[in-house]
Amino acid sequence: MNLFREHVLSLPNLIETLTPKFEQEVDGLGLGDAGAIPNQIYLTGCGDSYFAAGAVRFAFESITGIPSEPQTAMQFSRYAIRNLADKSRTLVIGISVSGGVSRTVEAILRANRRQIPTLAITSSAVTPLGKIAGRVAATSVPDIPNAQGVVVPGARSFYASMLMLVLIARAIGAGEQVRSQLATQTQAAIRALPEQISRVIEHADTWARAAALETQSAGEFLTCGSGPSFSVAQFCAAKIIEASGDSASAQDIEEWAHLQYFAKTTTTPTIVITWPNGADASRAAEVITAMNTIGRKVIRFDFARVFDRNNPTPHEWISPFLSAIPGMLFAAHRSEIIGEPYFRSFGGGRSIEGGGGVSRIRTSEIIS
User: Which of 103, 204, 223, 317 has the most CB within a 10 Å radius?
Assistant: First the structure.
């Protein structure tokens, strides 16, 4: 059984189930209280948590009107935090599914020591991250029954993090009178997600398997996107690495024209993620022409065919919940087709123990 694919197929039900629970969780945080609204926000985490922050940045800033900067936990904890100016009006949101990632714990710990308000998005308040954050938004995600005990590339947890971030943005935005109408529109957009995700899955599953079969002999992949789609591209590259072990990396669409355009190997399969009528649409079309001209194998799912007059295309700020689906399904099908176990079965010196064995994801030295 393709458990990664099963995780992707479960996402509509997951969003529908988690939304009321997460709304109740956010309601208790007092994020829209008068005088408590920040004027700058940092979103920090590692891996999928960092990608989730980048994916919803456009939504976060659109809904709240507040500059919001995603940073890796390493960048924030060791560098950016040293020069923060208006600390009392800053909010630092640390994202970690396990709540035990050393760098994210360090980021929140160092923010606390500088008396900067902190909020953790993690599985529970009793995780190491939850215990030290000023406030906690719990994002516990149940596993699907037939995948219990199996480490599967993260899909459900990624969506839970994005959902909680958007709900937090809505709560902050609702506290500003000028933003309250947009907060109401956000609620409607979230309610529509399960059906929209189902529609994308229906169209993308067969497409993804065909794309995986067509590129079966490839040894490396590139994913491209801009704006929220760039973070989705990073996430999808990570899923390819985790699921099939192939070399995969992400690049901004504009930057591709400045760099990868000159790569010696021209046939590298390149997954391009763009949104219908997105802000990057015109430039993406130009770059795709350049890719085709030099012989790149361009893989692009056409989201426009999923939506019609009766089912209008959602706004670009909510697109990461939909645009990540084809890339995940591609990675899931490729893993199954080439018979590669997820995470290389933690062999070759790799270990799941201690958060990655010698990589020390959860046991790294914390500099406070």
Answer: 223
> What is this structure's pTM?
0.96
pLDDT of residue 175: 66
The strand pairing partners of 299, in sequence order, are 271
User: Which residues, at least 6 apart from 24, have a Cβ–Cβ distance to it below 8 Å?
Assistant: none
Q: What is the pLDDT of residues 218-228, one digit of tens each?
A: 989 999 999 99
In contact, 156 and 7? CB cutoff 8 Å: yes
Neighbour tally for 277: CB within 10 Å? 10
> 110 with 368: CB under 8 angstroms?
yes
Of the candidates 63, 125, 116, the residue with the CA atom closest to the CA atom of residue 93: 116
Task: Report the C-alpha gap between 195 and 11 in whole angstroms.
Answer: 10
Identify the burial level of 245 via C-beta atoms within 10 angstroms of its C-beta, where 0-12 means exposed, 13-18 middle and 19 or more buried. Answer: middle
The pair of three-digit structure tokens given for residue 22, joined into one six-digit string: 């997460």
Q: How confident is the model at residue 182 (pLDDT cuts 50, 70, 90)?
A: confident
Length of the chain: 368
Asked if residue 93 lies in contact with residue 116, where contact means CB atoms within 8 angstroms, the answer is no
Could you tell me the domains of the chain?
A: 3-193 (3.40.50.10490), 194-341 (3.40.50.10490)
Q: At CB < 8 A and 24+ separation, what contacts does 134-142 make?
A: 135/29, 137/22, 137/25, 137/26, 137/29, 137/164, 137/168, 138/25, 139/18, 139/22, 139/97, 139/164, 141/14, 141/18, 141/97
| Residues contacting 101, CB < 8 A, separation 6+ | 45, 46, 49, 73, 129, 355, 361, 362
Detail the DSSP E strand segments found in the chain.
Answer: 40-45, 68-72, 90-96, 118-122, 135-138, 220-225, 247-252, 269-272, 297-299
Residue 139 has pLDDT above 90, yes or no: yes
